[in-house]
Amino acid sequence: MFKKLFCLFFLLAFIANSVIVAQENKIVILNLKNGYSVKGEIVEQSAQTVKIKTQDGQIVGYKTDEIVRIVQAKSSERAQSEPFKFDKSKLQFNFGIGLSTRGIPLYVGADYFITPDITIGLEASIRYRVSPTWYKGYIGGSVNGNYHFTRILQLPENLDVYGGLSVGPYFGFGKTISYGYYYYPEGPIFGIDLQVGGRYKINDKMWVNAELGLGSLTGAKIGITLRR
Question: Out of 46, 63, 94, 176, which residue is the most buried by the measure of CB atoms under 10 Å away?
């Protein structure tokens, strides 16, 4: 079962990577008559004008008689990047509640967009099962990575659909009236889960989030995502 899940995940990752490479191959350089050069992706082109989306996200238009030539950017030029700078606008915070095979989870976490389509994040959660005579549950955390399909599927900007993988340790705990505290005989577990989810934008800072997971902690959760 898990072999099939991992094969599916890596197949999706390969497809996503192929799409990213294809997008990178669209990067061109406009050499202008005024001596300047502009690097980016052509978003519109006609006999009279060329519109290009620059690497900082701006869309700029040029008349064809302003352009000397258009050349494909070399791979070394596409790979050039500035040193990493933390950008608060790329950070999002998540919290909520859910259902799972190991109890009702309460979770809180944060994700960071390392590219426009990929996030990495951390999540902490605690989950319970209760009865009149006992309770038991798990507490732990995970590292996750997700690919966001909004751009390549050309979805509306207020919709964020993603999928990925989470891994991390969880520790069992519990108590009964008769025997006091105990730990699960199975001990701590190392969770490995595939997830797929979506977010719907309420306003510029708040999104509603729903997610399904399959693996060590199979279940579903719903919550709120806050973006700066």
Answer: 94
Tokens 């919290």 appear where? 95
Q: Which pLDDT score is estimated for 164?
A: 96
User: Taking a C-beta distance cutoff of 8 angstroms, is the pair 192, 167 a contact?
Assistant: yes
User: pLDDT (tens digit, 9 = 90+) per residue, 16-27?
Assistant: 554 444 444 468
* The listed CATH number (2.30.30.100, 1.10.8.50, 2.60.40.10, 2.40.50.100) that belongs to domain 25-79: 2.30.30.100
Structure tokens at 191: 């969770």
CATH dotted code for 86-227:
2.40.160.20
What CA–CA distance (Å, rounded) separates 30 from 192? 46
Q: How far apart are CA 110 and CA 97, in angstroms?
A: 15
pTM, full prediction: 0.63
CA 9 centroid distance within chain: 14
Q: Tell me the per-residue pLDDT of 157-202, one tens digit each, with 9 for 90 and over.
A: 899 999 999 999 988 877 776 555 554 445 678 889 999 999 999 9
For residue 38 the two structure tokens come to: 């502009």
Q: Indicate the burial class of 13 (C-beta count within 10 angstroms; 0-12, 13-18, 19 or more).
A: middle
H-assigned helices in the chain: 2-24, 75-79
Distance linking the first and last C-alpha atoms of the chain: 39
Tell me what pLDDT residue 75 has.
55
